[in-house]
Amino acid sequence: MPDQVHILSMGQMMPAVDAALAQDFVVYQAGSENLASVVSQFGGVIRGIATRGRQRTDAALIAALPKLEVISNFGVGYDSIDLAAAMARGIIVTNTPDVLNEEVADFTVGLVLSTIRELPQADRFLRDGKWLKGAYPLTQTLRDRTIGMVGMGRIGRAIAKRIAAFGVPIVYHSRKPQDGVDYRHYPDLKTMASDVDTLIAVVPGGAATKHMIDAGIFAALGPRGILINVARGSVVDQNALIDALRDGIIHGAGLDVFADEPNVPLALLVLPNVVLVPHIGSGTHHTRAVMGELVVDNLRSWFAGKGPLTPVAETPWPKTCKTKSA
C-alpha cells in the first residue's frame, strides 16, 4: 500500500469505517459545518473520498480536489454524487451493492405489512387506552391485493421473491423487461398503477426518476391504493402524495425515505394513514458493518493498484481509467 494516501471522509461516516480507513490512509473527517475548511487546507493532497451521501459530492467539491481519483459511496444509491463531473475527470465512483439486498428486502416486507395492517396505529391505539373502550377497526388486507414493483433490480427481485411467498400477484415497471424475470412487465407506469392497488418503489434516485410517482400515478392507483417507498424521496412528488393521502385519493403509504431528509413536513406527520420511518431500510449492525467494509475495501483495492471492487454502472472503469499508485 503506498504511503500517505490522503482520504476525505464525509457525512459522519461510521466510526468503524473511519478507524479502518485510518489503518491505511491519512483521513480528514468533515461534516457540513467544516467541509469547506478541510478542503481549503487539504484539498491539494486528497486522493479519495469516502461518503455516506448526506452531503453532495458536487462539481465544485470535485473541482477543489485536483488529485481526486476515487469516490467510495456508502450505500447503493449514489445520486448525491455529480457523476458527470466525476466522469469528466476520469474519477472512479463505487457503491455497496448486493450486501444490503436481503436486509432491505426483509425490511420492505415488514413495511408493507405494517402499512396495510396499520400496525403502528394499532400500537398507539392500545397504548392510549382506547382498547378499553372498543376494538380496533378492521383494516385492509394483503390477501386481495396485486403488487406493482416500480423497479426490478437486485433489491426489487429480492423483495418480489419474498412477496411471492404470500401468494399474491406481482407485476413490475422498468424501462425494459428484465432477463430472468417471469412477472408481467409494464413499460408504462401509469398503466400499471391502474391495474394494481399497491406500489413498491425501489428505483435509483436522480434526474431520470425524479417525481416519476406523481399526482397522475396516485389517481390511477385509486382509493384502495397503497404506496411503499424504499427507494429515494425524490422518486415521489411529496406534495402530491400528501394531497393524495389527505384527500382519500389513495388509502395509505409506508415511507422510509423523504424529499428533504431528515426534515419531514408536518403535513405528513399529522396524517393517520401513513407509516413513517427514518431511512432505516439497511439499518442493522450486521448490514451496515458489511457496507462499511466494502467502502474501505474499494479504496484499499484502488490504491493498491487492483482497481475498484464495485464500480457503479456509469463510472469510466475499465474503459478509460488505469489504476494509479503513489
Quick take:
The protein folds into two domains: 113 residues, Rossmann fold; 176 residues, Rossmann fold (3-Layer(aba) Sandwich).
What does this structure look like?
The protein is an alpha/beta fold. It has 2 domains: about 5-100 and about 285-305, 3-Layer(aba) Sandwich (Rossmann fold); about 100-275, Rossmann fold. It is built from 12 helices and 12 strands. Strands 8-7-6-9-10-11-12 form a 7-stranded parallel beta sheet, sandwiched between helices. A 5-stranded parallel beta sheet has the order 2-1-3-4-5, with helices on both faces. Helix 1 runs parallel beside helix 12, helix 5 packs across helix 7 (about 155-165) and helix 8 runs parallel beside helix 9. The longest helix is centred in the last third of the chain and has 19 residues, at about 285-305. It is globular, with a radius of gyration of 22 Å.
Topology of helices and strands:
Elements: E1 6-10, H1 15-22, E2 26-30, H2 35-42, E3 46-51, H3 59-63, E4 70-73, H4 83-88, E5 92-94, H5 101-117, H6 119-127, E6 147-150, H7 154-164, E7 170-173, E8 184-186, H8 189-195, E9 198-201, H9 215-221, E10 226-229, H10 238-246, E11 252-255, H11 266-269, E12 274-276, H12 285-303
Parallel strand pairs: 1-2, 1-3, 3-4, 4-5, 6-7, 6-9, 7-8, 9-10, 10-11, 11-12
Helix pairs in contact: 1-12, 5-7, 8-9
Number of strands: 12
**At the first level of CATH, what is the class of the largest domain?**
Alpha Beta
Strand count, sense and closure of the main sheet? 7 strands, parallel
User: Which geometry do the CA atoms define?
Assistant: globular
**Helix content class:** 25-40%
Low-confidence stretches: 320-326
Distance between the termini: 9 Å
CATH superfamily of the largest domain: NAD(P)-binding Rossmann-like Domain
Q: What's the order of the H and E elements?
A: EHEHEHEHEHHEHEEHEHEHEHEH
Q: Can you give the mean pLDDT?
A: 95
CATH topology of the largest domain: Rossmann fold
Domain count:
2
Shape-level CATH architecture of the largest domain: 3-Layer(aba) Sandwich
Strand order of the largest sheet: 8-7-6-9-10-11-12
Structural class: alpha/beta
Approximately what portion of the residues adopt beta-strand conformation? Answer: 15-25%
